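Recall from the previous lesson that a structure prediction takes nothing but the amino acid sequence as input. Here we apply that procedure to Penicillin amidase from Natronospira proteinivora. The sequence below is the only information supplied.
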Amino acid sequence: MKRILGWSIALIGLSVAVAAVAFFLALRASLPDLDGELTVAGLTDEVTVLRDEQGVATLRGHRSEDLAFATGFVHAQDRFFQMDTLRRSAAGELAALFGDAALDFDRERRRWRGRDHARATLALLPHEEQSQVSAYTEGVNAGLLALGARPPEYWLLRQQPEPWQPEDSLLVGLSMFFYLTDERGDRAHRLDQMAAELPSSVVDLLLDRADPRAAPIVEEALPRPAPLPEPDTFQVRDFEEVIMDHDRLFGGVEPLPGSNSWAVAASLSEDGRGLLAGDMHLGISLPNTWYRLNLERSGADPRSIRGVSLPGVPGVIAGSNGSVAWAFTNSYGDWSTRVRVEWVDEAQQRYQTPDGERDLEVHEETIEVKGGEDEIVPYTWTEWGPLLEINEEEAHALVWTGMLPGGLGYGFPALHEAESLAEALDAAAGLGMPPQNILVVDRAGDIAWGIAGRIPERGNWIESGQRLPDSSDFQSHSGWLSPESYPRVVAPERQRLWTANARVAGGDHLEQVGDGGYPAAARQRQIRDRLFEAERFDEAAMLAIQLDDEARLLYEWVPLAIETADFAGNSEARDRFRREITHWHGHAWPESSGYLFLRSFRQAVHARVLAPLVHPLMEEAPAFDLRPIRNREPLVRRLLSKQPEHLLAPAFDSWAELMVDAMDAVIDRHELDGDAALMTWGEYNATRIRHPLSDALPGLGRWLDLPETWLPGDQHIPRVQLGNFGASQRMVVSPGHEDDGIFHMPGGQSGHFLSPWYDAGHEDWVEGQATPFLPGETRHSLRLRGE
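The prediction returns the following tokens.
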């Protein structure tokens, strides 16, 4: 019996081992072939795929369509699961892959009918763009088919990958609209709530654009600060308990999608070359958002296009074509609004428009659910967009550029072929992407700023301090601005340009772009100041600004914090607070406790100063928060300077007492009262870059995720790093001199955790190392031939 039992255990162990080996071999089989020759359907002419030691791909061919095919091929082989989740998230089709866990997300996302919109958009694209999307689609499916097994995520999910469709590339573009713009018009809703519940003097104060730290490219006279509300107009001392929790007031600490870019003209470089720096700030996971790509087209019209691509979309998104280089930052213009629907029947099925009454449209969407039954959900639309129900009495219709005809598209072929600043800016204006600031440098060393993406003629969209327009007189969208009427700055007199998500435009240009809730100006101001602190630049100097972790925003808070500690009187905890603040070195360094405490002190003061101003609104609308008021620093500093008694929260007898309460809240939060080691900024701000499946598969996290890292930086300084949010890439490049350029990004080229390129190059990003913009020596060569 013991012998039989022993044999049984041995057989079981052998079976488990065989199964494990088989599973490992299946995973290995899903890695791409890197060398030799491969015949694939759909390719017209030969393309060579070269890869360097980090897996960076260079594609060489004769035709743009063949290069688009090859781009789809390498994207699918290295990043198909990422592409799949991007298209599914935009279309609201994640539940078919993940089951019930994604059902609520799909229910909300289906409201926009993304797949129908992508199909309609595809049919309207110019022939050249349709040809590239079609070739890319064939390349994706050929690349997926050429793998020896399905990508590993599908093994783990017990699913099969679905073939790529041409509209899927438009869905990937739409996913960026969802990420980078206000797809629900929430800012317009909050502005309406403010106008309805607060005195106009309070609204004007909260939305005041007067900021001595503003650093726009387009200069304008600094607006005069809005007057403070008079005591007989707004008296906060009579309020009962006021909510002063920072996270509750400001919607948590989720960072805003953004980016940095700047350019210097040839007269400021060491050797007469214009230079461009760009780092796009996004949430960081594995794989990274971007995929490094070099397209080399030979023949009668040769072109080399180098930079980063977005898996799911053909072409290079940001980079250089040898004649011009370009980089993007999120514009935070006004790209969505809402309309108050006026019903004309008790059943709320008909509504009023400027052209008469209209019936609501009902669209049924079928949501496929893995392991469950399909769910059919009806969605109601107006002529402007989907209906957003507020309550039984009020409903809003959404207007969003991502869904307007012509807002979504492609358009990158024209940018790839641009030879001059004017051609690049014209091409950028036609891009079907979320509207972005674009900086361009040409080979002659001239520089320019403009807007990339379609700008709508906004009609009577809501403006600051106004109520939402009624549907009976809403003029939503009479077309798109023509490229020649776009805001632009070309060859500026000061030879420098800079953007960092704060307001860039002024005057008429600001009217065209609008105000979608610009973030604080501190980061943009610091970049501008760095550019004027030097008269000569090279690639290393540009990278140094990208890595600048000096926290200038907090300098003025040091004396306030010390004065507060002195006024409060001695205690062990307050002494520790004062000591750390006094010896703070001025940088957002991971080992610093002083930076963490000073940053927390500023946040606590902001909450206590601003909470009373919106207290009446938060009582009427509990879901309201202060996210529309993003440039809060000048307002808070002004109130601390003026110290108006009637605007002081009723919990305090003086403004000094407010400051002490903020300090003590920081002491309690970070447990300064005792002998325990102090928390540092690195502990608080640790970067944990993870694969999206590691939560569901905790046992595999050690292979899927990167080690926890403490990095310098924060959201309001040039080196943006807040948790898993930061620079998704950094590049410095001069067109025509790409071999001197700099590039690095988190993670690696491949999304396959068994690939040597899964995290190749990641340490260079962590350390801020200046690695080459161009790929290194070829290590692998694969020739693709058509059947």
